[in-house]
Write a structure and sequence with these properties.
It is built from 1 helix and 2 strands; from the N terminus they run ββα. It has about 100 residues and is α+β, with helices and mostly antiparallel strands. It starts with a strand and ends in a 26-residue tail after the last helix.
């Protein structure tokens, strides 16, 4: 996507517990934007209201997928080799991208 500046969307996961029973985590999503000139600043403030909607929906989707994966994959909800958080097979010859 071409933008009038440099953009970065950062995700950080924090554990909310310790030991084998720790099953809760916090996902922190941070959007960084370094505008290029006046056009970049105008762009950022023009789309700022939309970011709240888009990022909230994105986090809700990630949460739904993580909770579904944890329910179907047992305690810990670990991904199998070659599997994405959506549950799609990312190995060679598998998945919708093949």
């Amino acid at each position: 996507m071409r933008l009038p500046g440099e953009a970065l969307l950062d995700f950080e996961i924090e554990s909310l517990g310790h030991g084998p029973a720790a099953s809760r985590s916090r996902l922190i999503q941070t959007a960084w934007f370094l505008p290029r000139g006046l056009l970049g600043s105008a762009y950022w403030y023009a789309v700022l209201p939309l970011h709240g909607i888009v990022f909230k929906a994105m986090l809700a989707g990630i949460r739904r997928a993580a909770e579904a994966l944890a329910r179907t994959d047992g305690p810990g909800g670990h991904l199998k080799s070659g599997q994405s958080w959506t549950g799609q097979d990312r190995s060679v010859g598998g998945g919708p991208e093949a």
